[in-house]
Specification:
It comes from Arabidopsis thaliana x Arabidopsis arenosa. The protein is mainly alpha-helical. The protein is about 55% helix and about 0% strand.
Length: about 120
């Protein structure tokens, strides 16, 4: 039982470390030099996708908590507004492990912020 707890904790910490990149680090990184991964002018710029969520204080943490718990009551209106402005083409790259999460969060955020236009 103890080893399952350790493995689960390790996986959760690893996932959190992968998700929670600070805004300062994201701005200081240069574009990758491997053209096959992210060619210049790529239609999906992950830094740009994530930056809109990092610009709202606590938004990424709220979304991560929603992913892990399945509870959306902690997602605030400001975070929902930022999420609703994301281009839907960002979703598969931002949430590759759970493709059903972004549409679900979009529907919940549409209820929290009813007059906010969603971007397609």
């Amino acid at each position: 039982m103890g080893s399952k707890t350790v493995v689960s904790s390790f996986l959760m910490v690893s996932l959190c470390v992968a998700i929670f990149v600070t805004q300062g680090v994201a701005h200081t990184q240069t574009q990758p030099t491997v053209p096959e991964l992210f060619p210049p002018g790529s239609p999906i710029d992950l830094v740009k996708c994530w930056s809109s969520l990092f610009n709202v204080e606590g938004c990424v943490l709220e979304i991560a908590k929603s992913i892990f718990s399945g509870k959306f009551e902690n997602v605030e209106a400001a975070c929902c507004k930022a999420f609703l402005t994301l281009d839907t083409n960002c979703w598969p790259q931002m949430f590759p492990l759970n493709p059903f999460f972004p549409p679900l969060l979009k529907d919940i955020c549409a209820r929290i912020v009813p007059n906010s236009p969603a971007r397609n």
